[in-house]
Specification:
2 copies of one chain form a homodimer. The first copy, chain A, contains 10 helices and 15 strands. By secondary structure, the first copy, chain A, is an alpha/beta fold. In chain A, helix 5 crosses helix 6. The interface between A and B is medium-sized, with 32 and 32 residues.
């Protein structure tokens, strides 16, 4: 009797928050493998803001996902059958794959190195002995994104004063901790609501936290924390918060644009009015995609460093694992409604 | 009988274009020199967009010029009397000084190196034998700004595709030519009006020119010139043109922000809505001030290279010299009304 797959299909391009009716859970038999293919049993699916862009008209930074095709996201699974000689049964693979219970992977769907390409999985070295979801977080895309953005794009140096938005989120919570571990003199996180702000301060090592949902201007709150300006801003949100950060730059400040979550569900992107401050402060804004960094020697060295921090207990890599595969649209929306704590991961059905 | 000075005083902070009534030409006797002072007879005053910022409430990137004090700008003159042992009579000095016929310079007003500080002049090596106004242009702040912005901030490489706004202006016209001389595969200038566009193409070596005043979207015109995107944008104007450039970035593009002339007379700065493209294209925007570069070995090497281009006839360093000291507000406004051709310079009265 063949295995039965369950796969989430994009039926409509979402407007605003994802609606359950934008997706359809399609059931089908897993076909017999052809030569060169292997079969992956998905274990965990990470929920990423980037997927929201891929589901839209523009695609964000890739071609938009086709309608009536699978929704894609960062995932980890185990090879349970293989007709690809390079891929052995029992191997753990990770990458950007469909939101599904099983994935049939052709020879072009396997990369020797970590890849950010859609539909491409790479063998994952799990010899460092962590639980699988950790390879979707601190030792996966989130950790890579936080490290690359902070250390290479924003060129953080010891004693820098660092601001991180979406500090309660997957990438933001790691960026805050990496900044402290790498010697920042002050790290301030931005998050929404008293409960989330407490987590940011207590678990993620921020020296202070700004609640963007409480009264008062964000720019004034940033100024209160950094009266002489900030050196690095790790930006996950864009829009009004980016503008507030631009009002508070120290000379030669660097802003790394990791994402713009405030804009993904907005019909019209808000203009940023004060780019003039880049000139006044001789500062820069730079956008990045972690996929450009995967496979570099810096990438491998970073993961070794992060592994060390995890093992010494110096890094709090909070996982928020949900059994919500059957209700995945609502699981996904937790990213945008502030309902998750740390890396949001959905467990695939057994 | 003492010499009689004429000096332009800022009476009101201008709103929109500078009005003659915002300024006052004050006449006074030049006082006898004290120990350590020297007297400079101003020869030429360069008209710079930056001065418009200094005259406003915010000052732009410096403290705003005080009301009832002198208007300041880049100037060159000759020392005609000295009680400073380091400064000899006949020496040529340049820097940011008052819009005046004579300047009394104290010991703190003389720098051994080129300076961007207000009120500080530096001895100028004129041994390369050019006319004095050239030291306000290709061999002065304009040339330095164009070279530093293009080669260091935007990190232009041979074969890059380069876009320059305000390409008919002082800095822009040099940036276009430097880009070609340094091996850009295509250089496109943006300017306003058919006459100015012709100059940009014929005199400043652009491969193509975009007339922002003619019908149609600037973004579409940029796309027609760079179907695969641009590598470098040298931005003098900000606002809508910056947004259009952001829509047309190649991967890893670099934008150098030199100025935002479109915003200086605008009551509300226009927001730039598409910074998301920085992430999609892994690109950066960086602002700069040439004063940070003055005195560096790169600066001196750049001026040697520019001098060589001038002497070999490969550089068209157009000067627009006006005898308008008595009507300086209207001379200055030519920068914003598109009335100048190349570096706008006012000759000081004899």
């Amino acid at each position: 009797m063949p295995l039965v797959n369950q796969q989430w299909i994009l039926k409509k391009r979402p407007v605003g928050l994802l609606k359950p009716s934008d997706l359809e859970c399609r059931t089908s038999d897993v076909p017999p493998l052809k030569d060169g293919e292997c079969l992956v049993k998905v274990k965990y699916l990470a929920m990423d803001p980037a997927t929201r862009g891929w589901m839209g008209e523009s695609g964000g930074y890739v071609d938009p996902l086709p309608l009536d095709g699978p929704v894609m996201g960062v995932t980890v699974g185990e090879v349970i059958e293989s007709r690809n000689p390079a891929i052995g049964k029992g191997m753990i693979v990770a990458g950007v794959g469909p939101w599904a219970k099983y994935i049939v992977v052709g020879p072009k769907g396997i990369s020797p190195l970590r890849s950010g390409d859609l539909g491409v999985l790479a063998p994952m070295d799990t010899s460092t002995g962590h639980d699988l979801p950790v390879y979707l977080h601190a030792l996966g895309t989130s950790g890579g994104t936080a490290y690359y953005g902070l250390m290479t794009i924003a060129a953080m140096k010891p004693a820098d004063k660092v601001l991180v938005s979406a500090a309660g989120g997957s990438v933001g919570s790691l960026a805050c901790q990496f900044a402290k571990l790498k010697g920042a003199s002050k790290v301030v996180g931005i998050a929404g609501g008293a409960a989330k702000c407490r987590v940011v301060k207590e678990l993620y090592g921020c020296d202070a936290v700004i609640d963007y949902k409480s009264a008062g201007s964000i720019a004034a709150k940033i100024k209160a924390e950094f009266p002489d300006g900030l050196d690095v801003y790790f930006d996950n949100v864009g829009g009004e918060t980016l503008e507030a950060a631009l009002d508070n730059l120290a000379k030669n400040a660097r802003i790394a644009i990791c994402g713009m979550i405030s804009q993904y569900n907005a019909p019209d992107e808000r203009g940023v009015r004060n780019l003039w401050n880049l000139l006044v402060r001789e500062a820069r804004i730079e956008g990045f995609l972690v996929s450009s960094w995967f496979g570099s020697p810096e990438c491998e060295a970073a993961y070794r460093e992060i592994d060390g921090w995890l093992k010494s207990g110096r890094l709090n890599a909070t996982l928020d694992i949900r059994d919500m595969f059957g209700d995945i649209a609502n699981a996904y929306n937790l990213l945008f409604t502030g309902g998750n704590r740390g890396r949001l991961i959905v467990r695939a059905p057994d």
